[in-house]
Write a structure and sequence with these properties.
Elements: H1 29-35, H2 38-41, H3 45-61, H4 67-85, H5 98-110, H6 123-159, E1 164-169, E2 172-178, H7 179-204, E3 206-207, H8 223-229, E4 234-235, H9 239-244, H10 247-274, E5 281-282, H11 301-324, H12 339-359, E6 364-365, H13 367-374, H14 381-390, H15 395-412, H16 421-425, H17 435-438, H18 441-447, H19 456-471
Parallel strand pairs: 3-4
Antiparallel strand pairs: 1-2, 5-6
Length: about 475
């Protein structure tokens, strides 16, 4: 929270040392700062309070807290939440983390009753609960932005269903496609990303609260009740795994890495298409910047940054995998290192989606330039081969005939469609006047008239199907 007060750097003393009953000296000042996590885990402050409210209610329901004690705790926590929202909360590094900062503040506000809140739980299951609550919230925000991007993408694809452009393999002109068809390829990637995100959410949405330090607790707690109060689908099943599991964070970062990889691929195409060498699209000025020395420049900074940020998110996935690879059960201090990669991966994914969701609907296709580019590079050569096969020529022979025709066209500095019938017939007598119907770009595109094909009517049908699928989420 940008408006939070900076954590204070208090001097330790043995009496004030957290959980210091068995220690004879204060924590070293550097070690205190080195081991503290409050500078970053206070992002989960409201989730921490949310979990504490549910825990306190459950303790009241099973008789561990009296009604009066519960209401004091609940009111105190709600007041602290307001302090945090207003940026008035006095964060302290000496108190190590978000959990102890809030608990200490609660005790300060309501007295000894505040110390009863931690009954039947540990910071181990508390932090695991907080992370899941925080990540569940971010998943829902990301899902909403992903959906917004896909809606804009499908609308643009439908608008450009007839716009012909070159399709590429090896970044060389291969076959003509429609711009709408190309955009739907991006949407297909994002659909898989959405499915992965929702699948991840299922495993995030389990409650570790009540697993305590590692073995559970001797108090007659009701874990199903706290899970219900917090909107989890169910409690986690094994206390050891509950406090040490970070699979869900790794899985989310794997999702984020794939999402950013897909956005990076789209970004690379946007960078290429806005270049003077391609000049396929116009990117609105609000998504670009100028050069400090070259006044003619219009740089596609937004897609370039998305492409660049992909490396960060990929790195976070590797960091979490490496963090967990050698940890014995159950909780270890290593796990304090899980939050910063996870936080940044979620922030970056959300920001990149917002940028794309704003930018994509504003793209303007330069249709004449796309069409001119599609006419180059013999992109209808495959159509000529298919034509010959339909005339009874074996495909391998047709492939050879077309290759010879292309070689001749190159010598003549012409496209296949610009050759005369006589010139084409010197390579095969099966070629007749109707060949020119398949050598046009429009004819080539229209011929791909099947599910998943680039024919304009198939693109429109695919858009309708995609729009319906998005609406059912």
């Amino acid at each position: 929270m940008s408006n939070d007060k900076a954590p204070t750097d208090s001097t330790s003393n043995p009496a004030a040392k957290l959980w210091g009953g068995r220690f004879s000296e204060a924590t070293d000042a550097f070690v205190e700062r080195f081991t503290a996590s409050v500078t970053f885990d206070r992002r989960m402050a409201l989730e921490d309070i949310q979990g504490s409210l549910a825990h306190a209610q459950m303790l009241s329901e099973i008789g561990v807290l009296s009604s009066d004690e519960y209401h004091k705790i609940a009111d105190g926590l709600k007041d602290i939440a307001e302090e945090i929202k207003e940026g008035e909360f006095p964060w302290s590094v000496q108190l190590e983390d978000v959990h102890m900062n809030i608990e200490a503040r609660l005790t300060q506000r309501i007295g000894a009753t505040g110390k009863k809140l931690h009954t039947g739980r540990s910071r181990n299951d508390q932090v695991a609960t907080d992370i899941r609550l925080w990540l569940r919230n971010r998943i829902d925000l990301i899902a909403a932005e992903l959906t917004r991007l896909q809606k804009g993408l499908v609308a643009l694809a439908e608008h450009e269903a007839d716009t012909i452009m070159p399709g590429f393999t090896h970044l060389q002109s291969a076959q003509p496609v429609t711009f709408g068809h190309h955009l739907l390829a991006w949407n297909a990637m994002l659909t898989r990303d959405y499915e992965r995100l929702m699948d991840c959410r299922k495993r995030v949405n389990r409650s570790p609260l009540g697993a305590a330090a590692l073995a559970g607790t001797s108090y007659p707690i009701n874990r199903a009740r706290t899970a219900e109060l917090l909107g989890f689908d169910a409690p986690t099943e094994n206390s050891l795994d509950s406090v040490s599991d970070r699979d869900f964070a790794i899985e989310f970062c794997a999702f984020a890495a794939l999402l950013l990889t897909h956005l990076s691929r789209a970004s690379e195409e946007l960078v290429l298409w806005t270049s003077s060498q391609f000049d396929f699209i116009d990117l609105p000025d609000r998504f670009c910047t100028g050069s400090s020395i070259m006044p003619q420049k219009k740089n596609p900074d937004v897609p370039e940054l998305v492409r660049g940020k992909t490396g960060r998110v990929n790195g976070h996935l590797i960091a979490l995998l490496t963090l967990m690879k050698s940890q014995p059960l159950a909780y270890n201090k290593d796990n304090q290192e899980d939050k910063e990669p996870l936080f940044d991966a979620a922030d970056t994914a959300l920001d990149c989606l917002r940028a794309f969701a704003d930018m994509v609907p504003a793209l303007k296709a330069k249709k004449e330039n796309m069409l001119e580019a599609a006419a180059k590079g013999f992109s209808t050569a495959t159509d000529l081969a298919d034509y010959l096969v339909r005339k009874g020529v074996a495909f391998r022979d047709a492939h050879e005939i077309v290759g010879q025709s292309v070689s001749f066209a190159i010598e003549q500095d012409k496209d296949l469609a610009e050759l005369s019938l006589g010139q084409l017939q010197q390579f095969s007598a099966e070629i007749t006047e109707d060949v020119f119907e398949v050598l046009t770009l429009e004819g080539s595109v229209a011929a791909r008239d099947h599910i998943g094909g680039t024919a304009p009517n198939q693109v429109r049908a695919a858009c309708a199907s995609a729009r319906e699928a998005i609406a059912q989420r």
